[in-house]
Amino acid sequence: MTAGEIGRRPWIVGVSGASGTPYAAAVLRALLDAGESVDLVVSRASRLTLLDETGIAFRDAHWRQDLGDWLARGADGKPDTFAPGDRLDLVRYWSAGDLAAGPSSGSYPAKGMIIVPASTACVAGVALGLSKDLLQRAASVTLKEGRRLVVAVRETPLNGQTLKHLVALDEAGAVVLPASPAFYAGATHIQDLVDFVAGRALDAAGVPHRLYRRWKGELGGGSRDR
């Protein structure tokens, strides 16, 4: 362990195969903006979604370059919208197939975990304790260690079996957070809607951010911001 890693307690961010990779990018950017260390796990299925939604092929051997390209892209698909820069030094990447990775153990220091977006398959795997890959294993460890787990489920409609799995996660102590954007914050762009969901996920994790306009009890406040 290097001197820079002593005392490091990251947020684990798991990205599953559901549609909604811009949500993950917004959460990652905000965590890095807040100076938080991040351990990133990208599932095999999510690589296909990322390729389809952004054109970016996420590669283990070139993860830093690919992550930089991903975080620089806006929710509307435009490249170079954001500038992640040196903040990527705060990220440690783990392959989803590496079940010997740090986050697979409860003794590995972490603040908690955010799964964004969470597919119904991922929800089922975590609820049933399957631990079929590092993402699911890390989520199970987060629960058993009593750390905060935020599950930003992104699917509609939801069938009865998935609803039962979500109830099981709630009972296990996870925060179930549907990726449901609100419109009272004065959204004028798709990025605003994405940032609202990302901001709510960070609220649930207890991480400060400035991603959306908060409700102040003033009707019409959002329209005045346009």
Q: Briefly note the structural class of the backbone.
A: alpha/beta
Please tally the β strands and state the result: 6
- How many helical stretches? 8
User: Strand sequence of the main sheet, in spatial order?
Assistant: 3-2-1-4-5-6
Give the terminus-to-terminus CA distance. 49 Å
Low-confidence stretches: none
> What's the story with the biggest beta sheet?
6 strands, parallel
Measured as a percent range, the helix fraction is: 25-40%
**For the residues shown, what is the average pLDDT?**
95
The gyration radius over C-alpha positions equals 17 Å
Described by the principal axes of the CA atoms, the overall outline is globular
Beta-strand percentage? 5-15%
Order of helices and strands: EHEHHEEHHEHEHH
What does this structure look like?
The structure is a single chain. With 226 residues, the protein is α/β, with parallel strands linked by helices. Helices cover 38% and strands 13% of the residues. The protein contains eight helices and six strands. A six-stranded parallel sheet has the order 3-2-1-4-5-6, sandwiched between helices. α1 packs across α7 (190-205) and α4 crosses α5 (134-144). The mean pLDDT is 95.
